[in-house]
Design brief:
Shape: rod-shaped
Distance between the termini: 167 Å
Number of helices: 2
Largest sheet: 8 strands, mixed
Oligomer: single chain
Mean pLDDT: 86
Strand content: over 45%
Order of helices and strands: HEEEEEEEEEEEEEEEEEEEEEEEEEEEEH
């Protein structure tokens, strides 16, 4: 009887020993999500128990095997692997982290072709913002219409977008800063034209910026700095107009509804001070009686027309400039302007003396 009991316990012990030897492998620990900067280092831990007889491998984001048990498969000096026997932990180390290293990493215990145990961890790499190509680069809108500028950026963490204007000018939406991917202007005015800045920031690096130019098309606005000008006969005089318009307008000068052109009597010149501003000058050469009167400065583009008038009237004393230098009074006579002024001054002094003598 004692022999039977001994054999029974021996069989039980063998069964228990066999069962213990065949325990299913387990992954007891896997590193949690990791966030690192480009150029940094990360350790990915995988603790495996009861897997002495099975291969343990690390896989990259593209399911590329990186290691097998305690040996590294990939030939890359940035990767290394170590195994701690006491804790049964495999540690995959990645140095000088690159943007392409971001993704999911798997630790696998392969028990058969169709049977494996898997644990995974995500490695996220902080990346500075990069403004996407589908963001607005420039925009043209007519005055009174709506306009929309869009800005998108990649990077990690996800960048925040803000808008500013050149020289921190007030935005059409109000305030000097607007936050959001889309800046919408309900009704564009010519004062809204200029450079806008789309700024993407996520705390990594200095951020990214794109300049977006808003061009506003508007009808001409003509202003006349000196609406009445006097000049003596046979002298020159310049008539001026300032024109604000976009696109640049066609500019013409008229007298008595007849368009003027460059000839021996008139000289027209235009000078663009900016895309939207043009100064135009009409020089009336050697003024004759018939040239006194109203002159019209006219500007026209596809959005409209505007005009201003300048009156040229006769004076006895020449105005200088532009009446400086030799001026013809007739085909056979020539008088120097400075001599005329000296004569006028002498007459003035003479009459002052006469007045003082009477008093």
């Amino acid at each position: 009887m004692a022999c039977f009991i001994f054999k029974y316990f021996t069989i039980i012990l063998c069964i228990l020993t066999f069962v213990n030897c065949q325990r299913t492998p387990t992954i007891s620990h896997m590193t949690q999500e990791q966030i690192r900067d480009i150029g940094g280092q990360v350790d990915l831990d995988c603790s495996v128990h009861y897997a002495q007889d099975y291969p343990v491998i690390f896989l990259s984001t593209e399911s590329l095997p990186l290691s097998s048990n305690s040996g590294l498969i990939i030939r890359d000096s940035r990767f290394s692997l170590r195994y701690d026997d006491a804790s049964a932990t495999y540690t995959l180390t990645i140095k000088d982290i690159q943007e392409t290293d971001a993704g999911w990493y798997q630790c696998q215990v392969i028990m058969s072709v169709n049977n494996k145990i898997t644990a995974e961890v995500e490695l996220q790499v902080r990346r500075p913002p990069i403004i996407s190509d589908n963001s607005t680069r420039s925009i043209v809108a007519s005055e009174g219409e709506s306009a929309q500028m869009e800005c998108y950026a990649g990077g990690f963490p996800s960048p925040k977008i803000s808008w500013r204007r050149e020289n921190n000018a007030i935005l059409p939406t109000g305030g000097s800063i607007y936050r959001g991917n889309i800046l919408k202007i309900a009704s564009v005015h010519k004062e809204d034209r200029g450079t806008y800045y789309c700024v993407a920031e996520n705390g990594v690096g200095k951020g990214a910026r794109r300049n977006i130019n808003l061009e506003v098309e508007f009808a001409p606005v003509v202003t006349v700095p000196r609406p009445r000008l006097g000049q003596a006969l046979q002298y020159d005089m310049d008539l001026e107009c300032h024109v604000e318009a976009y696109p640049p307008p066609a500019i013409s000068w008229l007298k008595d509804e007849v368009q003027l052109s460059n000839n021996q009597h008139y000289r027209i010149s235009h000078f663009a001070t900016a895309d939207e501003f043009t100064d135009t000058t009409l020089r009336v050469i050697t003024i004759e009686k018939r040239q006194y009167g109203l002159f019209t400065c006219k500007a026209q583009n596809k959005l409209g027309t505007d005009e201003g008038t300048v009156e040229l009237f006769e004076m006895i004393i020449p105005v200088c400039p532009p009446a400086c230098g030799q001026t013809r009074y007739s085909s056979s006579a020539s008088v120097n302007a400075s001599e005329v002024m000296v004569t006028v001054l002498a007459l003035y002094v003479f009459w002052m003396r006469v007045a003082n003598t009477r008093h």
